[in-house]
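User: Predict the complex with beta-D-glucopyranose.
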Amino acid sequence: MRAVIVRPGRAASDELADVPAPVMDDHAVVDVIAVGVDGTDNEIVEGRYGSGPPGEDFLIIGHESVGRVTRAAGEFQEGDLVTAIVRRPDPVPCLNCANGEWDMCLNGLYTERGIKSRHGFLAERYAEDPEYLVRVPVELEPVGALVEPTSIVEKAVEQIWRIQERLAWEPKTALVTGSGPVGLLATMLLRLRGLEVYVYDRVSDGPKPELATMLGARYLAAAEADLARAAGGDLGDIDIGIEATGYSPLSFTLVDTVSPNGIVALTGVSSGTRSAQIATDHLNMEIVLQNKVVFGSVNANRRHFELAVDDLARAQRRWPGFFEAMVTRREPLINYRSALERKADDVKVIVEVGS
Ligand code: BGC
Ligand code: ZN
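Assistant: Here is the predicted structure with beta-D-glucopyranose placed in the model:
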């Protein structure tokens, strides 16, 4: 079968190759329909991240998938639409992996399909233990590849509400930094929960301002709105901050910006070596005297995938046309390289594999 592979650790080693069909065991077989690409895929293709399955010298990339079951297993019948969970428990397993919370793995020995020690989904088909498949309703087929990125945001949002059980809390306003797929999907979840949302990004043109506006959020372009100044009260009270740029200095500004008892979730992966000067006394005092929380959130478990499916369906009914606008390019498998290139007006790019 055809698959997009890389030699992990080697830059620009990607190719569309003919690889052996997946080993089936008692697994379901899924014919891939579409796969979304993201920054992690770019890092893997650049040779900066990722590893192949033990004993193999290549890795099939791709972790944001939607596909159709062609060989039934467990509760899944032929023809069912599915996506697959990315992370798998470590073999030990640690306390959290043993509890189904592999997104909270303690020892780093977890594996991730298409990323770490397991083949991914940017291929014509894959085999999967039904325990790691998640049902996708027919109406979500065109956006099924968004379930995985949405699951990442579902986890962060779930954690915010769980952590805030520490107090009486009626959040009204949120600030999301970054209007890429994660930022926009975070905005979508917060809007579904009835919050006013500000979306802050450096661009002032292209599709992003319009996408935020479609969700009923207020878009702030960096040039006109300085976050640090906003901390002085321009935006009113901010109960929740979600950082989705990975531009690390912004994380600290965001902690400064939220109101007393506020909470900040960091979701951006900053793989560079940037350092900045921070007013540590000020920040420390803000956090202590205002009972603030800042936490990091990565990956997702089954619960978050299931929430993502429900919320994508609700969002599709509430904001028709939003996802069509957010998926700015769809490329056939043969053009996977173009899909991986970041073009100016890209938000989400999806590779079409089958039908
Ligand atoms: C994936 C996550 C994964 C993370 C780190 C992200 O792109 O969506 O599932 O945990 O990369 O590998
Ligand atoms: Zn673990």
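The mean pLDDT is 96.
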